[in-house]
Amino acid sequence: MALRSDWSQRTCSMARGLDILGDPWGMLVLREVFFGNRRFDAIKSRLEVADSVLTRRLAGLVESGLLSKKAYDDGGRTRQEYVLTAKGEDALPVLNAVVIWAEKHLPAPSEQAHMYVIHSGCGQRTSSADTCTECGEPLTAANTSWHSLTRSDSPLELATAAPPQKATAHAASDAMPSSDTVPSSDTVPSQNGTAA
Asked: pLDDT for 34-84, tens place per residue?
């Protein structure tokens, strides 16, 4: 899943981490799964991404162990949806850090183009990626919400890791598109496909 080359065997931990988490599309796919969009078509609609790009990113995130596939019945037809693993859930502080850094250092193109990390326990916005700056409690997917002004008037709870499943083959062909439901009106895609 590397951007230009394989950094998975580098001696630097940051390089090895960036080999998996350094791809913008991969990070945006993780954002969508944390927001609860687990099906191919819902993620595709939100990101406005080509099937081939999304298929590769989902396959890479499954292969890297950040997501797993879970079967669901679509009116008599079995399809796959993507759920966080414990390893994927552990990436939350990285995503939080990107959001917090961007809010602090980058101008927003509109008043609605903001996203905040909220500690659900005390209800306060935090400026730390892993600990609530208001009450000091460690942040987890279970006690953190994201408030994306383009999605909702209030913070949205995050998805958490699914219980472990039996091992399955992780072929890239398994990440093919399916006919899933379109996201609800509170997840309308942005103009450029990258809005939170």
From this structure: 999 999 999 999 999 999 999 999 999 999 999 999 999 888 889 999 999
- CA distance readout (Å), 112 to 34, 66, 165, 183: 20, 30, 39, 19
pTM: 0.81
C-beta separation of 57 from 23 below 8 A:
yes
Angle (nearest 5°) at CA 156 between 150 and 158: 120
3-class DSSP assignment, residue 166: coil
Partners of residue 145 on adjacent β-strands: 118, 157
Q: What strands lie across the sheet with 124-125, from one edge to the other?
A: 124-125, 115-119, 144-148, 156-157
